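Exercise: predict the fold of this chain.
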Amino acid sequence: MAVRALSQPQLPELDFEAMTAEELISWTHQYFWPRVCVTCSWQKQSSVLVHMVSELGLDTDVVELDTHLFFRESYETRERLVKRYGLQLIRPDVITIAEQHKQKGPNLWERDPDRCCHIRKVEPLIEALAPYDAWVSGIRREQSPSRANARKVERSDRYGVWKIQPLADWSEEDVWSYIAANDIPFNPLHDVGYRSIGCMPCTRPTRPDEEERAGRWAGSDKLECGIHLEGRTA
């Protein structure tokens, strides 16, 4: 299939929801390449996506969403995945922690976590996605109420891309079964209660009775970093 015009607002009338994750990733690569990327933050979904892309033999850009506040284990997981799959990571520029302290005061994540996430995640992602027409993300409906209506293919006017979410209908058990079956490296923090992993200052382990992302920004009503919220600014 020929690569279509840039930023085409319409897609073929296909039943994307019926596609498997592999089928959707393959279609996305065929339709959008070379203007397609996968984003990773080194949680379990990242492990699944980079393995799946590698197994399909696809040449797809991998963008690392590194806030410079990740856990040591997250960076170690990144290195394991880079080594195993030969990843060449694209890293958008992010303001240093020291410069953020200078401009906004110390520990902005404690005083205004929405603003901190916008500076360290949303703004770099806007820059990183500028060359692309499609963005493959690992979000799943089961993760939290704020993601319950996620579609496998959605238009993001905020970023000017199509969001491709091949794992949207996967359960947490599905993710772990796939990782185990394929012996894929994963973040060891998942083994000690961190079902969702973000920045060190804003992430804690979850209890068995809590939803998957309850350990993110615990003690506040914040559910999302803002990356997946259309039309929101901070």
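Check your answer against the key: The first helix runs from residue 21 to 32.
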